[in-house]
Design a protein that fits this description.
Blueprint: E1 10-11, H1 22-31, H2 43-62, E2 74-78, H3 81-93, E3 102-105, H4 110-121, E4 126-129, E5 148-153, H5 165-171, E6 175-180, H6 192-195, E7 199-203, E8 214-218, H7 243-258, H8 260-284, E9 290-291, E10 302-306, H9 312-321, E11 324-325, H10 341-345, H11 350-353, E12 356-360, H12 367-381
Parallel strand pairs: 1-11, 3-4, 3-5, 5-6, 6-7
Antiparallel strand pairs: 2-8, 7-8, 9-10, 10-12
Helix pairs in contact: 1-7, 2-7, 3-4, 8-12
Length: 386
């Protein structure tokens, strides 16, 4: 366990979860006064319903969607992106020809992979797509799919690399496309219409919003079968809606989208500085350092560095003792000894796969944090081999 005081920690794991923005916390506190159940017909319930629907429309509008007209977009509130991804996959593949495949890849979230396995066990044709050395989709097998559902990840949390979903949609218009955009919102422009995506998964806690809430954006005429039937969320997702969490979600999305260009530039600068410091500290100690996906289009806030010869989990533990919060993979699989599925599927050497660590920055990351991390890299992380 780290002996560093929390105020002295350098938190470089924003891809797993971010601190709550002050304006999000304030908005949620105000919304907590609206205590009625949104499904209740009385005045308190109607007040909650009004706030909930207003909040829903704010998120849709922030993503460039339409809140009116016969082809208006929808936003279903979920417990997070895991549920949103699984709702999309189950809902878009429900019924129809079981030979129309679900296509996905190893870089997708663990919940997506679990949904794919469940569909395969139920008799649905499922195809895992290959990845190139930068963990980007190899679209070759898509040409053989006359129809089906493609579940893909706009920004890979395991490498930070970005794929061109719009190009995939243009090349394969016969496919319904679901996009996991969890890491992308607020870091790169995200517009479901521009990507021709049928659906989009979101999560508030990656944006400075609260834990426990996410969303499934459904574009235009997209229709899905319910994953969790109930009277709420237009009959597609049962359960009383958390109004205060939804308000915090909306504020986080609006903040992220409004400041996207400015924040992306700031984070990219800090990422590059942190990356250089880690690489230089490693090499000065005689340890090779390789930045994964360095030549590809990348998210501004994620860096994955391999240190051949060092165990990734031991490196993360050593960093923790020095007061630096890093990751050896995604938060959902960080307790596992298994390596990153995306790196494995990309065909990278085992020396890189077994030693890769992830650094990720966010709204609260400052230049001072990077300076503290740099000092720790130099004096603690590479003082001895893990």
């Amino acid at each position: 366990m780290s002996t560093v005081h929390p105020r002295q920690r350098c938190y470089l794991d924003h891809a797993a979860a971010t601190p709550i923005l002050p304006e999000v916390a304030e908005a949620m506190q105000e919304a907590a006064a609206v205590y009625g159940n949104p499904s209740s017909p009385h005045a308190a319930g109607r007040e909650a319903r009004h706030l909930l629907e207003e909040t829903r429309e704010r998120i849709i509008a922030a993503l460039g969607g339409s809140c009116s007209g016969p082809r208006r977009d929808q936003l279903l509130l979920t417990s997070g992106a895991t549920e949103a991804n699984q709702m999309a996959i189950a809902g878009l593949t429900a019924g129809g020809d079981t030979h129309a495949p679900l296509l996905y890849s190893a870089r997708d979230h663990a919940g997506t992979s679990a949904a794919a396995r469940q569909l395969a066990a139920a008799g649905r044709r499922v195809i895992q797509l290959p990845l190139d050395a930068n963990s980007l989709l190899d679209p070759t097998p898509l040409s053989d799919a006359a129809e089906g559902v493609l579940s893909t990840t706009l920004a890979c949390s395991q490498t930070g690399t970005l794929d061109d979903v719009a190009a995939l949609a243009a090349a394969f218009p016969q496919l319904l496309i679901h996009v996991d955009a969890v890491q992308a919102v607020g870091r790169v422009p995200v517009r479901p219409a521009a990507m021709a995506a049928s659906s989009l998964a979101l999560a508030a806690h990656k944006l400075g919003g609260p834990r426990g809430i996410g969303g499934l954006f459904l574009r235009g005429a997209t229709r899905i079968a319910p994953l969790l039937p109930g009277s709420q969320e237009r009959g597609l997702r049962g359960g009383t809606e958390p109004v205060a969490l939804a308000v915090g979600f909306a504020v986080a999305v609006e903040h992220a989208v409004k400041r996207q260009a400015e924040e992306a530039q700031r984070l990219a600068g800090l990422r590059d500085r942190c990356e250089r410091a880690l690489v230089e500290a490693a090499r000065s100690a005689g340890v090779e350092a390789v930045v994964i996906g360095e030549g590809a289009a990348r998210l501004p806030h994620i860096s994955v560095v391999a240190l051949p010869g060092r165990n990734r989990q031991a490196t993360v533990m050593a960093a923790d003792l020095a007061g630096i919060c890093l990751a050896s993979g995604t938060a959902c699989s960080s307790g596992s000894s298994e390596p990153s599925p995306a790196l494995v599927a990309a065909g990278l050497p085992s020396s890189l796969i077994d030693s890769a660590i992830r650094l990720s920055l966010g709204w609260s990351t400052t230049a001072e944090d990077i300076s503290r991390a740099t000092q720790a890299f130099q004096t603690h992380l590479f003082c001895r081999r893990a």
